[in-house]
């Protein structure tokens, strides 16, 4: 499967996962495209679409918590920011993601 097709699969599958959690893709289409492309490449390299913005530990149990969409594992943190760490997903009522700050978890 080529990169463009895989990105479309991610769009579909990830959308299904995040919708019942109260999230949607950011309206920033350029960011969506860039992050999904990075995830497709990561999946090709590692076997899983790990987060492009969080560091892997090489401890599988920990790293599975940053396979996209990682929202269920970081719900309290992301809900406080109304966005995921990368900004790929935002709360459904967000219209301008540029005003949402990225806040370290230990500051929440
Ligand atoms: S922070 Fe966002 S883009 Fe990164 S893995 Fe989690 S849900 Fe996906």
What is this entry, summarized?
By secondary structure, this protein is mainly alpha-helical.
Please specify the SSE layout and strand pairing.
Layout: H1 3-18, E1 23-25, H2 29-46, H3 60-63, H4 75-81, E2 89-91
Antiparallel strand pairs: 1-2
This protein binds iron/sulfur cluster.
Counting helices, strands and paired strands, the structural category is: mainly alpha
Number of folding domains? Answer: 1
* Mean pLDDT score: 96
- Main sheet characteristics: 2 strands, antiparallel
The rounded distance between the terminal residues' Cα atoms is 40 Å
> Might you state the CATH topology name?
Ferredoxin Thioredoxin Reductase
Strand fraction: 5-15%
SSE order, as H and E?
HEHHHE
The CATH architecture: Alpha-Beta Complex
Using the alpha-carbon principal axes, give the shape.
globular
| Helix segment tally | 4
Sequence of strands across the biggest β-sheet: 1-2
Q: In percent, how helical is the residue content?
A: 40-55%
| DSSP strand count | 2
Unreliable spans are none
Describe this structure in words.
This protein is mainly α. A two-stranded antiparallel ribbon has the order 1-2. It has a single domain (3-91), classed as Ferredoxin Thioredoxin Reductase (Alpha-Beta Complex). It has 4 helices and 2 strands. Helix content is 42%, strand content 6%. Bound molecules: iron/sulfur cluster.
